[in-house]
Amino acid sequence: HMAEKGGYKHFMLKEIFEQPRAVRDTLAGRLREEEGDVYLEDLHLSDEQLQGIDRVTIIACGTSWHAALVGKFLIEEHCRVPVEVDIASEFRYRNPVIDEKSLVMLISQSGETADTLAAMREAKRRGAKCVAICNVVDSSIAREADGVVYTHAGPEIGVASTKAFVTQLIALYLFTIRLGRSRGMMTVDAGRALIAAVVRVPALMEEALKLNEQVEKLARNYLQARDFLYLGRGMNYPIALEGALKLKEISYIHAEGYPAGEMKHGPIALIDEHMPVVVLVPQGANYEKVFSNMEEVIARGGRVIAVCSQGDSEVASKAEVALEIPTDGEEVAPIILSIPMQLLAYHVAVLKGTDVDQPRNLAKSVTVE
Ligand code: G6P
Hints:
Elements: H1 11-17, H2 19-27, E1 31-32, E2 37-38, H3 47-51, E3 55-60, H4 62-79, E4 83-87, H5 88-91, E5 102-108, H6 114-125, E6 129-134, H7 140-144, E7 147-150, H8 163-182, H9 188-199, H10 201-209, H11 212-219, E8 227-232, H12 237-251, E9 254-259, E10 276-281, H13 287-299, E11 303-309, H14 313-318, E12 321-325, H15 333-352
Bound molecules: 6-O-phosphono-alpha-D-glucopyranose.
6-O-phosphono-alpha-D-glucopyranose (G6P) binds at residues 61-64, 108-110, 113, 116, 159, 161, 362-366.
């Protein structure tokens, strides 16, 4: 079985290391650098249609829902359209405010998740235009949607999503550029700048993957933990949720992701010397705020695993562990931060001896309700 795993011990690790390639494939042929725009071959929505919408609702489950939360941040920031994010099993049993002027986006790696498919049918019934971000060509959701932005991650075998997630994020950056440009909310220069940022992603990921050995070594210090807390702010907050989900899924350690500024309203009560707290504190917007949240954790004895920018000696001197990621990418930080989140969950799970690629009770794709 080592051969089909490309020499890696698990599909999950193979897929983590495939991510730079998966991102390159998802970008291939789509960038129009000159115009500061992108070409999405299966989007099937004209500029006029994109101009006609007055809201975006993004619907998904699981890891794909975390991608959706990053999408809200990107679209609101760059396109100035209100974006709502919903979990598919909630959306389909609500009475959502959706009409012909709504753009509904479904994010699903498999394109077969029953709740997401049902949510799309409900949105269509109410007249919304539906766009899907899918990894599986001709899957049910991709076929029924008005348009698709395919991720080109390739088949994902590990139940815990890795390369599908980061390519969903890439698809969201691309869609944001298209929506912003078509609606005149994004200048050519702003479009070019965002394209330049996503083009740098594969190289930044290669750099971040070098953390593998460090994470493998430190993982053994956390096997006894009963709970983990993950903190982030802004568009890195969904990555805290995703980091916690990865750990839960494959290591069976309870973990919770929280917006760092909300910690004082509850989870701070849990912090003691037994509690590892992963703090996402890269340079950029919110840095000072998250830094002070980290200090609050340390003051209560929490064991901080900080993920910070390379060379941040201030964070490194305070945290129990500092995982340093490349500094060159505030715009794409959620993507780069995902790598240490995946590696930490992976190595803790391997050391605990769980079935990393097939965690108990979980399915790769949930096609029944
Ligand atoms: C299952 C998988 C998750 C995935 C979720 C949504 O729970 O175990 O990894 O994020 O379904 O799947 P989808 O294919 O719709 O993205």
